[in-house]
Amino acid sequence: MSIRVLICDDQSLVRAGFRLVLENHADLKVVGEASNGEEAIHSAGRLQPDVVLMDIRMPVLDGIASTREITARHPARVLVLTTYDLDEYVYDALRAGASGFLLKDSPPRQLVDGIRAVAAGEALLAPTVTRRLIAEFARVRPAGGVRPAALDELTPREFDVLRLLARGLSNAEIADQLVLSDTTIKTHVAHILAKLGLRDRVQAVVLAYESGLVTPGRPPE
Description:
This protein is an alpha/beta fold. It contains 10 helices and 5 strands; from the N terminus they run βαβαβαβαβαααααα. It has a 5-stranded parallel beta sheet with strand order 2-1-3-4-5, sandwiched between helices. Strand 1, helix 1 and strand 2 form a beta-alpha-beta unit. Helix 2 packs parallel to helix 3 and helix 3 runs parallel beside helix 4. It starts with a strand and ends in an 11-residue tail after the last helix. Keywords: DNA-binding, Phosphoprotein, Transcription, Transcription regulation. It holds the Pfam family GerE. It comes from Solirubrobacter deserti.
């Protein structure tokens, strides 16, 4: 079954370039395009894409506000496109519900693989990238926000996994530290996301820092 993709960018040449790349893959289907945030929201509801490629800087309504609306209303996953690595706006987009981000000048193969990963429910942030994101996120978005009540539903082991996950560790690295199998860690991560109502591990990282569960520079408890 094809992955339905909606392309949102205010530059027609950029949209055409993405479409050209994606249409060369049988498992990807471009179902529509949008040139601003309002069009993106409308198109997401009408076309029911699996993945939305979302430019951050767009007229009428920016990509951050559009991402927030789309992820609140629809099951579509949003993959943010940005010009600069770790652009400050990326953090706002992740907080709005985006499942990851790519640079606009990423190689075609990386774009295709990224869409497939996001559609499969994975976060498009490798552990090394997550660590960089954490460091920068902590710098521009201090921790200490309201602690979600849903955190009380986690078991002690799930708390252990969440803290390590928020440090940017991969499932294999978490399994090694806790002396558990990769499969067990994967199950714990799935339970954590379900209990906290999160889409993916990127959102778990954001929640852990904003709630003060994990503090930058301090080793996991």
